[in-house]
Amino acid sequence: MLKKYLALFVLLFPFYVYAEKELISSPTPTYITIDWAHHELHEGDNYHFSEVTEMTSGAKAEWLIFVSADENKHPHLRYFVNAEGETKTDLIENPDTAFGVVTQLVSNHNRNSAKTNNTVIMSMTQLSTGGTFLDPKSFAAGNNSPGQGITPEEWVLDAGSRYVFRVTSGAANNIVSVLIHFYETNGAP
């Protein structure tokens, strides 16, 4: 019965599930199911950037996310933000101006992999303008209590495009922790 439901799940959500057969001390095959992002971790294509910063009220921090023009690599991005006070986040596609200054360290989650990321993340000293705001969020609003902003869905970023991830503090002495997580797939997105 379990195999029937697992097979149905795999059929309904093929983009999310990676299943492989493995024999476990019996002649009956057992399915081990992991989500696709976890599969990419094992393939060595799973990366993250993180930073912790103290921000004043009204201050903005931005990171430029430059996606390689390689049509065969498609980054799937999620972000996580923890903050002590009121905070707003934006994911902006193709801003009119965006100047990245310092390339940031992006770590591969698979420490045994020699693969490197095609997607580049840079810190910015000049704020971007324009662009399409894809995912504005606000959290811990007005109560100055700790909060968390998470994009629950992945964004599949367009090859050769620029994105800006912006954090705006609405509180003084706001300790903000940013994690940008992505994995890169080969072939069609």
Helix-strand blueprint:
Layout: H1 2-12, E1 17-23, E2 29-35, H2 36-43, E3 46-55, E4 60-66, E5 73-83, E6 87-93, E7 97-103, E8 107-108, E9 120-129, E10 132-133, E11 137-139, E12 147-150, E13 155-156, E14 162-169, E15 174-186
Antiparallel strand pairs: 1-2, 3-8, 3-15, 4-9, 4-14, 5-12, 5-13, 5-15, 6-10, 6-11, 6-14, 7-9
Number of strands: 15
User: How many separate domains make up the residues?
Assistant: 2
Give the averaged pLDDT, no decimals: 77
Shape-level CATH architecture of the largest domain: Sandwich
Structural class: mainly beta
Oligomeric status: single chain
Low-confidence stretches: 1-25
CATH class division of the largest domain = Mainly Beta
Report the order of strands and helices: HEEHEEEEEEEEEEEEE
Q: State Rg.
A: 19 Å
**CATH fold-level assignment of the largest domain:** Jelly Rolls
The N- and C-terminal alpha carbons lie at a distance of 33 Å
